[in-house]
Write a structure and sequence with these properties.
The protein contains seven helices and ten strands. With 202 residues, it is of the alpha/beta class. The chain has a single domain, classed as 3-Layer(aba) Sandwich (Rossmann fold), CATH 3.40.50.300. Strands 1-6-7-4-5 form a five-stranded mixed sheet, with helices on both faces. Helix 1 crosses helix 7 and helix 5 crosses helix 6. The chain is globular and about 45 Å long. The termini are far apart.
């Protein structure tokens, strides 16, 4: 992508019917809270369970940076796909574009549970389009988050401090929100998330 300030994609966009039978599970929380790690843990544990779906996101970020397994595209290609209706949900954050494939709508219509890591900025819009919906708000102690961000090595210490300050300003609440503390071991929080996901299928 060309250098310069990122161009805005506009408001978060969703393109889903309101009568889906499956549950859309939105995993949200600040960077460093461990959302991708928890999702990977559950994906591995549920690898033989076709009723819970973990779609790959499309991101305008290099695919070899040690982050989640995702489809890597240029910003121009992302815009082309978004304009063609390729994404059920898409948004922009921290200079990157993120998209959840529209195929999740089919999985939801089939009664499957769909688990996606999304920005907290799309939660309110998703609530208007998807029923039933569950928001899993992942958090961790501030010192734990800071250490995880440092280990990730993508940002300077000043950038990390600014990111931590911004995360304190965003709060997600409501009767559809379950809070999950991921300050301890991955097994502890992972098993808690796993229970939430498998309960969707009972």
């Amino acid at each position: 992508m060309a250098a310069g300030p990122p161009r805005r994609l506009g408001p978060p966009s969703l393109a889903a019917p309101a009568n889906d039978r499956g549950t859309l599970v939105l995993v949200v929380g600040p960077s460093g809270a461990g959302k991708d790690t928890l999702i990977s843990y559950c994906r591995s544990r549920l690898s033989d369970n076709g009723r819970v779906v973990f779609p790959r996101r499309t991101i305008t970020r290099a695919g070899d940076d040690g982050s989640e397994d995702h489809h890597c595209v240029s910003e121009a290609e992302f815009r082309r796909q978004a304009g063609g209706g390729a994404f059920a949900i898409h948004w922009q954050a921290h200079g990157l574009c993120y998209g959840v494939p529209v195929s999740v709508n089919t999985a939801l219509a089939e009664g499957r549970t769909v688990v996606v890591n999304v920005s907290r900025s799309v939660v309110d819009a998703a609530r208007l389009r998807y029923r039933p919906l569950l928001v899993v708000s992942v958090s961790a102690r501030r010192d734990v988050v800071a250490e995880r961000l440092r280990e990730r090595g993508r940002e300077s210490l000043d950038d990390i401090a600014r990111r931590l300050a911004r995360s304190d300003l965003i709060e997600v609440g409501g009767p559809d929100v379950v809070r999950l503390d991921n300050s301890g071991t991955i097994e502890a929080a992972g098993e808690a998330l796993l229970l939430l996901l498998t309960d969707r299928q009972r």
